[in-house]
Amino acid sequence: MTAREKLHQVVESLSEPEAEETLDYIERQHGRDPLVELLENAPADDEPTTAEEEEGVREARAEYRRGEVFTAEEIRREIA
């Protein structure tokens, strides 16, 4: 039996949640981050921003410039 055939057998035996986890893992290994893909495919926000939102954006950009950031992996661990 080839590795591909064995892989097909294993995939067929996975539950849906296990399949989702495995797919996320494989996509990360191939450089496709599901979180980045989700954000890239999100619809454009066409509503006007408030002064409060604009201030939040300024604060966030300042934090980013200071290096106060989290990686996607850190966020995943936090919410898991």
Structural class: mainly alpha
Spatial separation of the terminal alpha carbons: 36 Å
Annotation, overall tally of beta strands: 0
Could you tell me the radius of gyration in angstroms? 19 Å
Helix content: 55-70%
Number of domains: 2
**SSE pattern, N- to C-terminal:** HHHHH
Main sheet attributes: strand count, strand direction, barrel closure: none
> Uncertain regions: pLDDT < 50 for 5+ in a row?
none
Report the sheet-strand fraction: under 5%
Q: Give the averaged pLDDT, no decimals.
A: 90
Molecular shape: elongated
| Structure annotation, total helices | 5
Produce the secondary structure layout:
Blueprint: H1 3-13, H2 16-29, H3 34-40, H4 51-65, H5 72-79
Description:
With 80 residues, the protein is mainly α. The chain has two domains: 42 residues, no CATH class; 32 residues, no CATH class. It is 69% helix and 0% strand. It is built from five helices and no strands. The radius of gyration is 19 Å and the shape is elongated.
Task: Provide a quick synopsis of the model.
This protein has helices spanning 3-13, 16-29, 34-40, 51-65, 72-79. The protein is mostly helical and 80 residues long.
Descriptive terms for the model:
80 residues, mainly alpha, 0% strand
